[in-house]
Amino acid sequence: MISVDRIIAKQLMNPFDLVQRDFSLLAIFILLLTSCNQELTKTSAEDFKMSVEGTAQGTTYSVGYYDLQERNLKPHIDSLLDRIDQSISTYKPGSVIDRWNSSEHGVKVDRLFMEVLIESWLVYSATDGAFDPTVKPLVSYWGFGPEKFESHFEIDQMEIDRLSRLIGLDSLQIIRANDTIAFDEMANLELMNDSIFLYKPNSEIQLDFNAIGQGWSVDKVASFLYALDIEVFFVEIGGEIVAGKPKPNGEIWRFGIDKPENDSKDRELQAIVNLRNRAVATSGNYRKFYVKDGEKFSHTIDPKSGRPVQHNLLSATVFSSSAAEADAMATAFMVIGKDSTLSYLAENAALGDYVYLIYDSLGTTQTYMSPQVEGLIEEQ
C-alpha cells in the first residue's frame, strides 16, 4: 500500500542525486515474460506508460511515467497535491496560508508551509530581495491577486509607499517553544518536526507562494515517484516541469517554450527544450497584464519600487536541479530585467548559469541562452 503521509514526510531536497537504475532491464524483463507466457499482450516498454492529469493550485497538472506494476497513482498524486493546497494555496479558503494572511500576528504553520518558506528564503537571500513572497499586498493592490480583477482606480503613490513598507521576508520571525529561530537555522529540517509559529509584526503583511509553489509541488511529486522506484517520468504543474531519466527507447523528454505573444489565439513555440534529470520553469509578462489609460501593467511586481516592472525582458526560462529554485529564480529575473539578469549571471555563476531569455530589442524579439543550455534548446 502506498502511504502519501510516509513519503511526504521524507524531504528530498534534490531528487536527481538519487541512484538511478537502468530501465533497459525492462526489455529483459518483458523478454523473459514473453518466453514464459505466450498470451502476454504487452511486449514493449511503451505499453507500460501511464498518464495522470488533474487540477491543483488554480491550474492543471500532468504526469507521465513508466511503471512495470502499472499502478494508477492519480489518487495518491491528487491526495499529495491536495495536502499541499491545504497548506500553501491562496486559492484555497481556509488553507494555512489563508489563515496566516488573515491573522493579526501570525499562526502556527505546518511542515509543508515551512519547507516552502525556507526555499523562498534561500532565493530571497540569493537575489537580494528580487524574489519576495511578502509582495502579496502590492500584487493585490495592482489587481493580480487570487481575486482576479483589473485595477481601475487612480494610482496612489502614497498608498504604494505605505504597502511597500510591509514588504520584506526578513521581517518575519520563526518561533518554536518560545525561542526565535533564524531562517538559516531552519535549513536543518529536524527542527520542523515541532509546530512552528510564524510571527508577523503587522497584520497587513501577507505571503504569496504562487511564484514558487507550483515548482515546489512539482519537486514533491517527483520525490513521490522516486520513492516508488519510478525513475522514467515527467511532472508538469502550471508549466513548471521536472523530467527524470529518458524514455525506455532512449528519447529525451521534449517540452515547448511559448512565443511571448499576447495577442495570439494559438500558442506558438519559440523553442523546444530537451530535458533529462532536470527541472525547468518559465516566467513571463506577455499574458498576465492589463492596459489602463494606454499604459500596460504586468503581473510581475518589483518589491523595491512597489510597481509592475517595465523593461524589455519578455520571459525567463531557468533550468535547475529543483523546480522550486527554477520557478523562483525565473520570477526574480523577470523582476530585475535582462541587463541586470546578465550581470547577475556573471557575478553568480553557480546560482543561475542555466537560463534562456526572450526579450524585445527595438520592436524585434531576440533571445539569449547561457552556454550551458545550448545543447538543451532547439530554437524554432
What layout of secondary structure does this protein have?
Layout: H1 4-8, H2 25-36, E1 49-56, E2 59-66, H3 74-88, H4 96-102, E3 106-109, H5 111-126, H6 136-141, H7 157-164, E4 173-176, E5 179-181, E6 196-199, H8 210-227, E7 233-237, E8 240-243, E9 253-258, E10 269-275, E11 278-284, E12 289-292, E13 295-298, E14 313-320, H9 323-347, H10 349-352, E15 355-361, E16 364-369, E17 377-379
Antiparallel strand pairs: 1-2, 2-7, 3-6, 4-5, 4-6, 7-8, 8-11, 9-10, 10-17, 11-14, 12-13, 14-15, 15-16
Helix pairs in contact: 3-8, 8-9
Q: Any descriptors?
A:
single chain; 380 residues; alpha+beta; T-fold; 2 domains; eight-stranded antiparallel beta sheet; four-stranded antiparallel beta sheet; 10 helices; 31% helix; 24% strand; disordered N terminus
Radius of gyration, in Å, reads 22 Å
At CATH level 3, the topology of the largest domain is: T-fold
Return the string of H and E elements.
HHEEHHEHHHEEEHEEEEEEEEHHEEE
Which geometry do the CA atoms define? globular
* The level-1 CATH class of the largest domain: Alpha Beta
The rounded distance between the terminal residues' Cα atoms is 45 Å
**Helix/strand-derived class?**
alpha+beta
Low-pLDDT parts are 1-38
Mind telling me which CATH architecture of the largest domain this is?
Answer: Roll
Q: Taking all residues together, what is the mean pLDDT?
A: 84
| Total strands | 17
Helical stretch tally: 10
Strand content: 15-25%
